[in-house]
Amino acid sequence: TRTAQALRTLPKTELHLHIEGTLEPELALRLAERNGVTLPFDGLDDLRSRYHFADLQSFLDLYYQLMSVLRTREDFADLMFAYLTHAHEDGVRRAEIFFDPQVHMNNGLDYNLVLDGLQDGIARGRDAYGIDAALILSVVRDLPVESAQALLDAAAPRASELLAIGLDSAEVGYPPELFEQVYERAAGMGLHLVAHAGEEGPAEYIRQALDVLHVERIDHGVRIVDDPALVQRVAAEGIGLTVCPLSNLRLQVVDDVANVPIRQLLDAGVRVTVNSDDPAYFGGYIARNYTALAETGLPVTALATIAGNSIEACFAPEEGKAAMR
Ligand code: ES4
Ligand code: ZN
């Protein structure tokens, strides 16, 4: 439709995207074959039948299982380039991309192999499309804090290749304050600071991410609507919220896309952005998230505001932002 086309061509950034969440089932099976990895699925139809999630954990179980097919530098390069192709088609000028090295390291891979492969894919995307991409080192919060510190040990020699640190995976029971020292150290390495908070967890975790971790953006953050004073504060401070509507729907954070509190947050003056999170699992890349909101009656003018917010909330230098506006 014309609206869908207009939403695809809006200049935008993507600020909440897990590269491992772009692993399409077809590619997962192809890489399993290429790498001699055995998966407990009987072909594509059987694998496809597993994409029904009751909550965050049931998604994470499949997501971590499929990550075991990623073995070589080329695998990571191919995965990154495939994502950047989708992103370019959806009007994305810059992407700030999470990766989960602890999981790959637990699968026996070297941190530097993972980083090299992702950087190869980013270089291919820049050459092919002129798209700008940067990496967010994401800490898996349901692994021990010592594992996060070991991750920083591995990442430190090449810290200048990273944009930011993030915090993801199972949220409830793993409050941000557990990672105070990890974030302090990451800040000392020159990284920007973001964290998932208020997806399944309470608004209190958003407050901790701000006050204890000193994050500059909140990933998801939709539960902030339970705390009106915190909404006002985030609006006043210009903190970006990276909301992911199809993710919230598929993980049953909401029962309908219309109930993702986008309009409420925009009306409160919050710097809301729209993103795809794990598009291979949740039914669409970023433009599909924009159109899903349009289908709820959110005006295209509001979606243009959101695309503008995504440029303001990104960590590109000011001249880079100006070139995207
Ligand atoms: C994630 Cl949707 C979501 N939430 C938390 N952690 C994640 N890792 C990948 N996708
Ligand atoms: Zn996420």
TrEMBL record:
InterPro entries: A_deaminase_dom, ADE, Ado/ade_deaminase, Metal_Hydrolase. CDD domains: ADA (cd01320). The keyword Transmembrane helix does not apply. The record marks 220 as: Important for catalytic activity. Its EC number is 3.5.4.2. It catalyses: adenine + H2O + H(+) = hypoxanthine + NH4(+). Binds 1 zinc ion per subunit. Residues 11-325 form the Adenosine deaminase domain. Belongs to the metallo-dependent hydrolases superfamily. Adenosine and AMP deaminases family. Adenine deaminase type 2 subfamily. Catalyzes the hydrolytic deamination of adenine to hypoxanthine. Plays an important role in the purine salvage pathway and in nitrogen catabolism. HAMAP family: Adenine_deaminase. This is Adenine deaminase. It comes from Bifidobacterium erythrocebi.
